[in-house]
Amino acid sequence: MTGTARSLLDLGDLGFEQGAHLLVQRALETLPPGAELAVAGLDPALVVHLEAWCRGKGHRALRAEENDEGVRATVTRGRTDLDRWARAERAGRPEPGGIVASPDPSWGLAARGALVEPGGPPLNADLVERDLVWAELAPSLYAHAASAQWDPATAIGWDAEVALAPEIERAVVQIMTFLVENEQAALVVPARLLARIHPHFREVLQLLAVQAADEARHVEIFTRRALLSSGEMGTSSVSGRESLATLLTEPDFSLASFLLSVLGEGSFLNLLTFIDRNAPDPVTRQVARMARQDEARHVAFGVAHLQHQGKVDPTLLGRLRGAVEQRHQTLVSSAGLNQDVFDALVLLAAGEWSPSGIRRGYAAVQELQEEMDQGRQHRLVRLGFPADEAAELSALHTRNFM
Amino acid sequence: MTLLMGAVAYDPKVVTIWGGFRSWLNEHGCPFDFVLYSNYERQAEDLASGRIDAAWNSPLSWIRSRRLAEANGRTLTPLVMRDTDRDLTSVIVVLADSPYKDLADLRGETIAVGAVDSPQATLLPRSFLAEHGLREGAEVELRRFDVGVGLHGDHIGGERDAARALAAGKVAAACMIDSNHLLFGKEGTLSAGSTRVLAQTPPYDHCNMSVGDTVPEQTKRNFGELLLSMSYVDPQVRPLFDLEGLTSWRPGRVSGYGALERAVDETGFYSAEGTVTAQGYRP
């Protein structure tokens, strides 16, 4: 006895086969170890079950003598349930301000802010430092991304009339084929990265998951537009695939984010605007426009993440530069853009095969490349590169656009 | 010396449990290894003959290895046991709406028991029933459910089959350990409230860590003290305790094995020297 008054629990006719242990457990939780709980009840098997249950839970039950209160047994509270949580800790706090710099890998998949029982297998994640993956903008970007999801079946007016000259249609099909290939790279890269990030940084995981889902939709709508009239896809060149392969092999989160989102998807914003502007039919215009909305968000996260990291890592700019140079070296002997894609873009902007049309189209594609270059330089400057270095690095970007 | 312990592989989790204990003990300065047996009889023989230093013994295996050892002038020590090995009971259960009001009402009936070598579901209840005037083959018939023979009742299958036979009305009563009556009610093998506990045996003890006299006193003491120091607070220990079903190790004791010793003698399960004499028992 601890000297404290003995508590009494009356189970009525509730048996242990029907959940009586929950009431006993709740009553014991209010008592300190060593305190006693008198248990009354009418279930014939109550004492047998109470004894067996207490034994397994580290409590002790003592059968009562006959008495007026109908008490059947007295439980002496053990401490096993307390011991389980004795060294438990909170996995940070739930709100974004509560993330910690280096979450314990053994927190595993526990919700941020949960009380975590120590032990258990460590998480197989290698991106476990806040400064490697975080951006202050991530929570609001995720919220925006989630609210901006759209249904490919209804967001595009698939029933609109599309009756193009066969060569113009072929140019659209070629561009769509190129876009699908690039979007597949853009799907795989964030999907791979998110599995490597500690779930403590859940807004980053959520954002990357939505990013992958965005690309999945883009793959769908570009494929559907390509097959709308001809039923056949265009060509895929070795050089295009070589260029994309270099994105998939970059293991560093920041560098992968830089190459894909800031430089690649950044250039794609200009490309999608170009397709929108020169689209020969409403479906082509819509698919470009819908995809562009999403890509703008991906670029924003990439830039925000690198701006955050640039503040804590003075070596970042040097590493970004190294990544661009290395990718350039890898691709130096590659042709870059699929010639069929380049020609298709010219024809799309020309709208016809006349000399004046081709002149116009060719100039438009040159202007597109200039816009892409300006856009890259602008983002590089935002990351902290001096203007001349930004120009130099932008020029080294792959000719494949992405 | 590396202390070599035997354990019976009645379930795949045994590897996880003893592999975990092995790591913990070695990290805490006690060289320890284990070997697995397919049944308790060979383990009991090997412990008694000194081929292994210790054994995680069922109560029945404790009795046999002790008898074998003592017949050869050796001694075994029940070093530690789980807190959950102390003061267990078995229950004789009937259907709630059956006419049986006390044990005597079972005269002439058939009672389901577990495997031939289950202390809790066969040997102890049979002795308990005989003590209350219900002898097997005379006043009552026993229907045995031999699942996992050689595992000394560690396999729950025999008890569950006995409970199913009761639920199906094929027998008048069934014998099982108290915690399994609770488990079968929770899992639905016996629907809640459909059975009644007609009688309950006095408390008895279950497994223990038996250590042979091949182990130097100091090593034995260290081993025992280390086990007793294992804490449920320790995240490395806790999952092992949860799997093995204990919340702490307690000192071993022999006071809880009297009823089983008597039951073994009554049915001639083992001879006084530890020879297997049970009829039809093939582990």
Description:
Chain B: This is ABC-type phosphate/phosphonate transport system, substrate-binding protein. Chain A: GO terms for molecular function: oxidoreductase activity; transferase activity. The complex is a heterodimer of chains A (402) and B (283). Chain A is mainly alpha-helical. Chain A has three domains: 7-83, TusA-like domain (Translation Initiation Factor IF3); 87-124, no CATH class; 130-395, Ribonucleotide Reductase, subunit A (Orthogonal Bundle). Chain A is built from 15 helices and six strands. In chain A, strands 1-2-4-3 form a four-stranded mixed beta sheet, covered by helices on one side. In chain A, strands 5-6 form a two-stranded antiparallel sheet. In chain A, strand 1, helix 1 and strand 2 (36-40) form a beta-alpha-beta unit. Chain A is elongated, with a radius of gyration of 32 Å. By secondary structure, chain B is of the alpha/beta class. Chain B has two domains: 3-85 and 206-267, D-Maltodextrin-Binding Protein, domain 2; 90-200, Periplasmic binding protein-like II (D-Maltodextrin-Binding Protein, domain 2, 3-Layer(aba) Sandwich). Chain B is 36% helix and 20% strand. Chain B is built from nine helices and eleven strands. Chains A and B meet through helix 2 and helix 3 of A and helix 6 and strand 9 of B.
